[in-house]
Structure formats: C-alpha cells, structure tokens
Design a protein that fits this description.
The chain has an 8-stranded parallel barrel with strand order 1-2-3-4-5-6-7-8. It is globular, with a radius of gyration of 18 Å. The longest helix is centred in the middle third of the chain and has 19 residues. It has 10 helices and 8 strands. Helices cover 33% and strands 16% of the residues. It has 280 residues and is an alpha/beta fold.
C-alpha cells in the first residue's frame, strides 16, 4: 500500500481528471504490467486501496510475433510474461476501478502501415468475441505513424492509446526539446505518454533525466494535451527515490505510474502478488 500512503500523507495530492486541450478526460493510473491470470487481478483488487481519482491499470503483454508465430504443435509461441493470445482477454475484468490495456510490442521490422494496424484490430476483435472490456493499448514500438493512429481513433473513438517513450524512441532525438516538439503532433490521437526507458527490465528511472524531460514537456504544454506517466524499476522499495522528483514537479500532476520488472519474482519470473500489494 506504499503509493497510496505517499499520495495521502506525503504529497497530499488531490487528483481530478481535467479536460485537456485535446478534449479528452484522462484518468491517471497506477499500473501493474505482466498479469497472466484473471485470479491475479482479482487478488490485487481484493485488497486494493488507490489514491483518490486513480485507476488500476491492468496490463497484459502481447508481442507482434507472438500473434503470428506458432510452435511445432500449432500453438502460439509466447515470450515470458505473455499469455497465449486466446488467454489474454481472460485476465481483464469489467470493474470501474480498472483500466484494461494490452501492451502491444510491435517488432522493429514490422511495417507500421500494416502490422501495427492489423495487430490492434485483431486484439480488439479477440476481446469483443470474448465479451470482455478492453479499454485500449500501450504501443511499445518506434513512434507510430500518425495516419495509422488516426484510422484507429476514427473507427474506435473510445479506445485509449498510450505511446511508450522507450529507449529507442528517446535516443532517436538529440534533445528532450526536440522530442517534446514531435510529441505535440500526437495531440488528439494519443491519450497518454509513458516515459519508460526500462521496458520491463526493472532498470531504475533516472530522476535527473526524468526532470530534464518533464521540463521540456512542460515547455511544450504536453501536460495539457496528454496524461503523462513514468516507469522504470518501480516497487515499494524504489518508489521513495522518486519523492524529491514528485515534490519538485507537482505542477505536472497527476502523474501515472507503471511497474513490471521489480514486481516479478527474480527466481521464478512470476508476478509476485505480495510485491504488487506492497507497491500499491
């Protein structure tokens, strides 16, 4: 329950979902990525105590190659922490406290104009056929093509789109300012931006680097255009390291957060429910 305690007693933040300049009401979230079973989500919800105004982001991992590749038995190949394609919808629960997102890794060699578009629609239909509520996607890839996102947005206006600002994306720009200027072009088609150089590896978030980018994002008024989130080695043990950053940048509130690597057992690789509950 660490994050809830921090928000209530240390930062004393009052969270409201303000309408941004893109006309979208974005709800901040505290995320856990890497759920494999519905029972894991149910267990976390049982003891859930979130800061007021926040949702639990339930993240299910999906890999572009995973959808298309089969093993010798004709079954889906799945990387670690990735449910089989047919099982992915089963982790999602229709609960108002949850924001159900598929974290879709699109391979570097994918054709953005076809593979990303096809993958998104395949998963939308898989979830619709299973009768489950899918709120949206986090796109773990190079910066997606804006035209593709426009098409997805036009046909699915309620789908939430999170753009992951991963190592490759961040390093492809010479400065934080140049990245921030580019991201303005996604206003109205993407809902959230997630600063995440860890990519699920558990690598700690550098608060110095996060401060540099947070300042550039503010200069370009990105907090008025998107929900902003941060990830990188977050857990109950590491979250205290972010407190100076959060207190310094309360102008940017409410931040969203996502955790993956540090919430998994290092020996078994499985999601640790105790770590999840301590983190929340």
């Amino acid at each position: 329950m660490f994050i809830s305690y921090v928000f209530r007693h240390f930062l004393k933040q009052k969270v409201s979902c303000k309408q941004n300049l893109g006309g979208i009401m974005e709800t901040p979230y505290i995320g856990i990525t890497g759920f494999m079973k519905r029972e894991q989500v149910e267990s976390v919800l049982m003891d859930l105590s979130l800061p007021p105004g926040y949702k639990l982001m339930v993240g299910g991992l999906a890999h572009g190659n995973h959808y298309f590749d089969k093993d010798a038995r004709g079954e889906d190949k799945k990387p670690p922490r990735h449910p089989k394609t047919k099982d992915l919808p089963k982790i999602f629960i229709d609960d108002p406290r949850c924001l159900n997102l598929i974290h879709l890794h699109v391979p570097d060699n994918a054709n953005h104009a076809s593979d990303m578009y096809v993958l998104v629609y395949n998963y939308i239909h898989i979830c619709q056929d299973a009768g489950v509520r899918l709120d949206g996607f986090q796109l773990n890839m190079n910066l997606p093509n804006q035209e593709d996102l426009f098409e997805i947005r036009d046909s699915n206006p309620d789908v939430k789109i999170v753009i992951q600002l991963n190592n490759k994306v961040i390093n492809s720009f010479k400065t934080s300012d140049s990245l921030a200027k580019k991201l303005r072009q996604y206003a109205g088609i993407a809902n959230y931006l997630l600063f995440d150089k860890s990519g699920g590896t558990g690598k700690p978030l550098s608060t110095d680097e996060a401060t540099d980018y947070a300042t550039a994002f503010d200069d370009q008024h990105l907090p008025t255009l998107f929900g902003l989130g941060y990830a990188g080695g977050l857990s109950a043990d590491t979250f205290p390291d972010l407190l100076p950053f959060l207190k310094m940048h309360r102008l940017f509130k409410p931040f969203s957060f996502d955790a993956e690597g540090k919430l998994h057992d290092p020996e078994t690789g499985e999601l640790s429910l105790n770590r999840c509950k301590d983190y929340l």
